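Support request, priority: normal
Reporter: lab tech (M.K.)
Component: structure prediction queue

Hi team, I submitted a job for FAST kinase domains 3 from Mandrillus leucophaeus yesterday, and the status page still shows it as pending. I've pasted the exact input below so you can check whether something in the sequence is tripping the parser. The sequence length should be 660 residues. Please let me know if I need to resubmit or if it's stuck on your end.
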Amino acid sequence: MALITLRKNLYRLSDFRMHGAALKSQPLNHVHKVVKERLCPWFCSRQPEPFRIRFHHAHCKKFNSKNGNDLRPLSGPVFSQISDWVRLEQNVKNGESQTFYKRLSNLTSSEEVLSFISTMETLPDTMAAGALQRICEVEKKDGDQGLPKEILENSIFQALCFQLEKEPSQLSNTTLVTALQALILLHVDPQSSLLLNLVAECQNRLKKGGLEVRNLCILGESLIRLHSSGCVTLELIINQLQGEKLETFTPEDIVALYRILQACAEKVDERQTFLNKINNFSLSIVSNLSPKLISQMLTALVVLDQSQAFPLIIKLGRYVVRHVPHFTNEELRRVLEAFLYFGYHDRFFTKALENRVAVVCLTLDPEVVCGVMEYCSRKRILSKPILNAVAETFVCQSEKFSPSQISALMEPFGKLNYLPPNASALFRKLENVLFTHFDYFPPETLLKLLHSCSLNECHPVNFMAKIFNPFFLQRLQGEESRLDRLSRARLTQLFLTSVLECPFYKGPKLLHKYQVKSFVTPCCSLETPMDSQLYKSVKIGLIDLLGARLYFAPKVLTPYCYTVDVEIKLDEEGFVLPFTVNEDIHERIALCIDGPKRFCSNSKHLLGQEAIKQRHLRLLGYQVVQIPYYEIGMLNSRRELVEYLQRKLFSQNTVHWQER
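Reply from support: The job had stalled in the queue. We restarted it manually and it finished. Here are the results:
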């Protein structure tokens, strides 16, 4: 059928004679009742409403309802011939189509769309589907909700849906899949006769191989949203798409193909050759992708674990930069997740992120704020504009963050060793939240949060007694036979902090069974391992300076859980002792050979876990000497290295060491 006429769907339900015969007068509320009975499987029950709309119909006389009950013929022809239908459809396509869609795109509400199509004498099926699609677009602007009741009860909308259900086999491919897509997005009941008929017709045409690339992509995405067809139908769609030339795909089709493959991710290994082909082709279309399509493609690449497609990821990252101001909250969150998954970051993206967050941080969703903070934390990015904006957001809107989100938001301040300008207000707000909602925080989350505060000298003294309490430790352990090592390491460092930096704390101590002997662990360590290449360079200089390898020891585990990169022992007169000597030691020098991973990215700012280590070592009596990578990198000769170490280690001009 080439044309859908809304009035026909209503009049055919009443008893009337055609070709000049008088229409039997049926009250319009009876007509509305019949339509509603047919529609009740699609939507929830609704109250009847007056039905007073003027229609112009191409298949019957024009009628006008003045009082809602009496229908009188106006003027005009009765049925048109088939040739008239074809010619009208062609005219619509050639002349009226652009005007129709232009006007449709300017409408901003479902009511406006329905009012607009009610003024049309005839409505081609493609335009009817377009109207449904526009209703979907304007409704989706307010969130992922179903249609409001007043739209569901609208007679024009009901008649439009009824026609689609009545003769789906007569719809064009494009109209069929577009209507299905719109109705699914509008949350029509998946078990309704309307959707079941449309899906069945789509599957029938799919088996016959009569759907074009674009229609296959729309159908695939629609079935994914419907959650009812499993991978069987999707596999059939993928097989048909695999036989098409990628050059015929639009950017939207390529992203839809990724999303269809994403829905069948368990078979990714079988499709990897096809995926490699898509990944390579996608390099040519990145510049044409919208912000939404870029975020969808990145998400699909994550689900499909396409780490080998790094050229594509890099190119997507470059184009993400220009779209940062235009991403929705959800799209930005997905982009951040993808970048974290693939380990991608660059300074241009960080700068664009800073510009956006600094301006709109107060309006960002909590999940996006936490995603931004996780990105900065994982990539060791000390972005003061982002951290300052997030700190201000938490002070002003702490109530919108859940306990886990508060922890995710606050931890980067400790890791990056940064205090924002409003640090006092920030930690005062955090303290108030903890006092009020302490029991709502999961034990592990609370421990991570309080531990991160101690890294940049904001010690949670008021809560130490609670976390060292056996009852809290039992909750932290849960049903496990033993507390995990990372939690024990955090507890130990907090206890050490209470002893060294909070001498006024007189509460409970951490039981010995919960303490660790070393902060270095194979998986998650509270210390960054020493850079081996940097150590080799320093070792050469130390041997030249001290005269022998005997006078220093690498990776020395102290009684206080910290591992010193290089330890040098001095006697009371300042002589260097062999590292094997354990008596008459007057002073210990702790060399911190700090590689790039101990600093914030592209910065000379030490990370929190390294700052607290050096702070504690000083309080424990060590002479801490920092040997940063950026100073070693400026030395051009071995002699310069020895002179540099001489200045760092000793204030006197000559060095002494004991004979063996």
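The radius of gyration is 35 Å. Confidence is low (pLDDT under 50) at residues 1-92, 653-660. Let us know if anything else looks off. Ticket resolved.
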